[in-house]
Specification:
Length: about 170
């Protein structure tokens, strides 16, 4: 993946994180809540950037950040990005599918889009399952983000494809 695509992916991830961040608006939530929220957002942003870099040397730190963020995660982001890491590290399909199901059960749109990809192509599994793929496509259509139109299924699929594509050497030919 070239540098521009990675920047685009990071930009899209940042926008979505900002739109869907958990609030501390409840009475008496206080400064501790705000601090936890900021640390969660920081850990997730750093983990996403490390994963999107495609540099396997960064994956151990990304995983540590995801583990630390797990207690604050309400949207399935941690499980989704752990699945992406496992894909890059040489996945065990069962582990990836379990993580993606966990994320999809929290209505994580990218997890649903990736599950569609897995069963439609097939990706990570030996045989496509068009019926199961269509179930995930329909499930995406019922998510709040899909109803709002952002990200569309096509945008979510493009982002997922970028995240799970094999890292390139990022060299630009002259």
């Amino acid at each position: 993946m070239d540098g521009y695509k990675k920047i685009g992916i990071l930009f899209a991830l940042g926008l979505l994180a900002g739109c869907a961040s958990k609030g501390c608006d409840e009475p008496l939530s206080g400064e501790a809540c705000r601090t936890e929220q900021l640390l969660y957002q920081n850990d997730m942003l750093q983990a996403k950037m490390l994963i999107a870099s495609g540099d396997m040397d960064n994956y151990e730190l990304a995983n540590a950040l995801l583990e630390r963020a797990k207690t604050q995660d309400k949207r399935g982001e941690v499980s989704f990005y752990q699945a992406v890491l496992k894909i890059h590290e040489g996945p065990q399909a069962d582990e990836v599918l379990d993580l993606l199901e966990e994320a999809a059960n929290a209505d994580q749109p990218y997890a649903v889009a990736l599950l569609y990809k897995i069963y439609a192509e097939p990706f990570l599994i030996e045989q496509a399952d068009p019926l199961k793929a269509e179930q995930y496509r329909a499930r995406y259509a019922n998510l709040d983000v899909a109803k709002s139109g952002y990200p569309s299924f096509e945008k979510a699929s493009a982002l997922v494809n970028g995240l799970v594509s094999p890292p390139s050497d990022n060299q630009v030919s002259e």
